[in-house]
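Tip: read the tokens left to right.
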């Protein structure tokens, strides 16, 4: 999975014009929510999506029209009104979309800001991406790192920096603010949603492929190098081969953007991994297996002092109930459950 930040950086380095469209506000029922992004090239090829349909088609056309020079634009869509105009949509909300064009020659300092942004994203670091839009619709982007360091052109307003220091911009989507005559779009750069797969067997193999398709960064862990390797998992962000599952979480920084799936080849290994997983702040912990296996492992862990209430938070048997049988079908049931949990965690309507 290549992020839009990395794709944007590649286009900047190649001197290629492009535009970004970002949903910066939504109300009611909409196909995508605030923070959804789409990259548009001059030939109308896209990466990412803001929801498809005729709204997306209009945004693509508008992005291409902006590619005569660097500038910004805001587009508002009332989907109720669009339905009345004959759009093939069943949503009933409204969207505000920010469009920004990038046209060469690109100043070195602009490329450097995006390089820093890509580096921060790759390291899983948090930051604020602050874009100042002047009265003549020119956009300039700066980064505010966790420590308050600013990278980018110009000075940011003190009121904005004070608000950043008080963590007022930590929501899931962009914030639109006005300071004086200038408008600012403030986007939080958060850690990616990362799927940690413990077990590189048949189900893990299929699940990693689906994680790539559904915008999860993926870390695969096993104690068998013949299973956990780049040839089998070309889309995984990281592959870890252990000597023993007792060290499964050594060196990992698990937070609320982490999703843990336990698929090892044996009950003992599953229990070893699960016991360590329960010490983390992961958004999701799921373990494959039957109800009998679950009962046995839970009993063992309660004897070791794990609270029953904590065990109730585990998703086991794992996956949605779709009568899955094959490894691919089981992986579909798991990824469906992960998508649902992720949406709930982000406050998105089901």
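Filled-in amino acids:
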């Amino acid at each position: 999975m290549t992020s839009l930040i990395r794709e944007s950086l590649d286009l900047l380095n190649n001197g290629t014009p492009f535009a970004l469209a970002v949903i910066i506000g939504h109300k009611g029922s909409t196909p995508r929510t605030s923070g959804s992004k789409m990259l548009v090239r001059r030939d109308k090829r896209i990466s990412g999506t803001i929801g498809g349909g005729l709204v997306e088609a209009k945004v693509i056309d508008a992005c291409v029209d902006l590619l005569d020079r660097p500038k910004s634009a805001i587009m508002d869509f009332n989907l109720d009104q669009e339905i009345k105009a004959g759009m093939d949509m069943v949503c009933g909300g409204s969207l505000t979309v920010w469009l920004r064009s990038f046209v060469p020659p690109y100043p070195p300092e602009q490329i450097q800001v995006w390089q820093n942004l890509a580096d921060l994203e790759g390291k899983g670091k948090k930051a604020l991406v602050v874009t100042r839009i002047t009265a003549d619709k020119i956009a300039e982007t700066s980064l505010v790192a966790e420590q308050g360091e600013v990278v980018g052109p110009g000075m940011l307003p003190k009121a904005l920096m004070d608000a950043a220091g008080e963590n007022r911009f930590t929501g899931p989507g962009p914030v639109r603010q006005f300071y004086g005559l200038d408008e600012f779009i403030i986007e939080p750069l958060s850690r990616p949603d990362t799927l940690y797969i413990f077990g590189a067997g048949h189900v893990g193999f299929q699940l990693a492929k689906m994680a790539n398709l559904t915008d999860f960064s993926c870390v695969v862990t096993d104690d068998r190098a013949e299973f956990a390797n780049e040839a089998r998992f070309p889309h995984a962000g990281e592959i870890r081969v252990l000597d023993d599952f007792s060290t499964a979480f050594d060196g990992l920084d698990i937070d609320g953007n982490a999703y843990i799936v336990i698929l090892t080849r044996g009950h003992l290994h599953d229990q070893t991994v699960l016991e360590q997983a329960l010490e983390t702040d992961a958004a999701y912990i799921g373990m494959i297996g039957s109800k009998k296996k679950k009962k046995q492992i839970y009993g063992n862990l309660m004897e070791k002092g794990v609270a029953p209430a904590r065990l109730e938070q585990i998703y086991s048997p794992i996956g949605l109930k779709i009568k899955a049988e094959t490894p691919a079908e089981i992986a579909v049931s798991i990824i469906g459950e992960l998508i649902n949990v992720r949406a709930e965690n982000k406050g998105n309507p089901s």
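The longest helix spans residues 327-345. Confidence is low (pLDDT under 50) at residues 82-88.
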